[in-house]
Description:
Helix content: 40-55%
Largest sheet: 6 strands, antiparallel
Distance between the termini: 75 Å
Strand content: 15-25%
Number of strands: 15
Number of helices: 16
Amino acid sequence: xxxxxxxxxxxxxxxxxxxxxxxxxxxxxxxxxxxxxxxxxxxxxxxxxxxxxxxxxxxxxxxxxxxxxxxxxxxxxxxxxxxxxxxxxxxxxxxxxxxxxxxxxxxxxxxxxxxxxxxxxxxxxxxxxxxxxxxxxxxxxxxxxxxxxxxxxxxxxxxxxxxxxxxxxxxxxxxxxxxxxxxxxxxxxxxxxxxxxxxxxxxxxxxxxxxxxxxxxxxxxxxxxxxxxxxxxxxxxxxxxxxxxxxxxxxxxxxxxxxxxxxxxxxxxxxxxxxxxxxxxxxxxxxxxxxxxxxxxxxxxxxxxxxxxxxxxxxxxxxxxxxxxxxxxxxxxxxxxxxxxxxxxxxxxxxxxxxxxxxxxxxxxxxxxxxxxxxxxxxxxxxxxxxxxxxxxxxxxxxxxxxxxxxxxxxxxxxxxxxxxxxxxxxxxxxxxxxxxxxxxxxxxxxxxxxxxxxxxxxxxxxxxxxxxxxxxxxxxxxxxxxxxxxxxxxxxxxxxxxxxxxxxxxxxxxxxxxxxxxxxxxxxxxxxxxxxxxxxxxxxxxxxxxxxxxxxxxxxxxxxxxxxxxxxxxxxxxx
Length: 576
């Protein structure tokens, strides 16, 4: 069986890279023609401008809102806005009383409703639980096999709530991936509903609301203790109800504790999504409920805060609304782009001075990486409503140096192999084996840093982290699918393989000459062996120009001995 050579593999990889570009370009063209995609990236608030709304909180019973409550309201609004697909929104407090929401573009009616509505925390009994994947239409239960209630439901946990219409909704519900994060409209309190748990990807059929979240007076978290007060090493969430909530929760738990299967569970629902669905182990008669089950300290804290502040009786009125121009404007964007162009120019100049013609591979790789990143940003703007902020532009500029660094590592490995006496084809393959481990480790660190920064930061910093991570992925694709295959093919050209002085692989410039030729003879740069004919000529010339480190050391030692011998002979003659 014939072996596939490196040059053939390189051509195939370049073809696959072309296919990737065709797919990305075709996707964007299709989105532009048949959708609302654009060939220009969507811009964030600081570059495009948008709408600013000042919200005044309305608290039930004319109570004063605390700083804690206001901050939690800000977090709830931020989650709702981000969940609706709007990114790079700015949500802050003003004067300790109001909330300022700044959104790019003009918000839709659905987004306005999400911002103004108070959070709804509810307790509902569980009627059915299943995997979050939607059932394909052809596999769904036939009409004649759908459940038909035998009578009107008599309680919240009654299975007669599940009728044919509700079962269809349940089977069609998609609780996986981004679908589970989508905003949920208010659901009727006195009817059974379907719902998702975005964390676990589980879907539910839930009975009517039995306990409202505003009956909770406090919620906290801590470690479970036994009767003697010793810690069991298990985290739990503790809930305190008011008098009305205590009576209602005792009634609910008295019924659920005797039920089997999933009907023993009650779901805690926030803004239409299930955040927890614990089992009922005992009757809670004192209003102090404890939720356990695989919590870490962080997850227990998060759930306690959702329970404590998730049912704030706060809604918001839009006090004022106005259109705002770009907060940074065209001047700042122009300055950023000029800085990026200067940085790119310096990288190009350095590459050409340091690597001569080899530097054009760096330039071409940067162009390929830039086009791939641009297409990705445009497609994400269309599909995920991603918006590019000035911080994101900064991430792209920083990535220029990090991308060029990958090529420099590779080139230097190749030159090291040449100094060790290898031919260019062999140097490219061996240099790649050594360089790719370094490149992978470097990009893994970059990607990890970007992911951590994205999830722990808020606002524009997330835009910086996102573009930094995106360019790290693009860099890896380009190095593996363009830079390395290109060098594999260039290594077989006379210009590079022959070590032309403008190729960046000139033996004399790399310190490969003078070359050791054996028998105490040192070959200089001008002492060249006449080339042979045919394909072996280039190989013979290349082998003659390369020298191993061991050979150079022997040559230097031989030179040193000859010099010492000459000095000794001269001294003897002078003595005579």
